[in-house]
Amino acid sequence: MKKMFILMMLGMFSASLFAYSDSDMDGVDDSRDKCPNTPLTDLVDINGCTKKSLVSSHHFDIIIGANYAGSNYASLNQTDTYSSSLQIDYYYKNFSLQASTSYYTTNGDGYSENGLNDSFLGASYQFKPLKSFSLRVGAGVLLPTYDTALNNNNTDYTASLNASYALGKVNIFGGYIYTMINDDDIAGTVAYQNTNAFSGGLGYYVTNKLYLSGAYNTSDSIYAGVEKIRTVSAYGYYSINMHWFTTFSYAYGLSDSASDQAASVKLGYYF
Fold this sequence. Notes:
It is a single chain. The chain is mainly beta and 271 residues long. Helix content is 7%, strand content 56%. The protein has 1 helix and 15 strands. The protein has one helix at residues 2-19, and strands at 42-44, 50-53, 58-71, 79-92, 95-107, 112-116, 119-130, 133-143, 156-167, 170-180, 195-205, 210-219, 229-239, 244-253, 259-270. The strands form 2 sheets. The protein has a 12-stranded antiparallel β-barrel. A two-stranded antiparallel sheet has the order 1-2. A hairpin with a 2-residue loop joins strand 9 (156-167) and strand 10 (170-180). It is elongated, with a radius of gyration of 27 Å.
């Protein structure tokens, strides 16, 4: 009789195990789960619906870079500029903040100079009206940390709009940046102007770690009377692991006002 009772209890326990099903492993049986497929990182209520995500919406990255630009502007001596850059970004959901600066060394015909370039502080917000389409609006300030004798030591302001449309592994993108130049003209020497910059191109996700793109870019010069700066560029992003990533870019000048060629390699850490 005792053996029969034990077998009955084991049978009932086994039946209850086989009857229980929890597809999203949130601790709530599928028959009572009103929110199926919740992420493993979510805390759920008795109905299986998210109460709180254990994954923070706050993220940062730090990016260091090495950059090169060779100038062929006809009215200037041929110069090569090398710079090291530092960029820090903060992300909260669709909102982001950015701070960046760089230190340059320029070598020309019989002269050289070095120092800080202008530093940038900015903010942006991304909208996704469609799953495959996104818009990012931004604003920022260019702080006059670049020391020069040409009176361009005032704070400048920028506004930007970028759009991206995804078609499978391909994305089409374009951008616009308006910069309000507040530098003081030097009579008979230089006159400054506000600038408009446009870019557009195609990108391709080669793998889930590697992204490549090409773009055409055009921008006004900050100097009045100088032809537009036109370049074509290539860009790559590679995710080393969940924290480390690297980017690389190359640009070729199509106008005399552009750098003959420019390249950069950057290493970033995301947390």
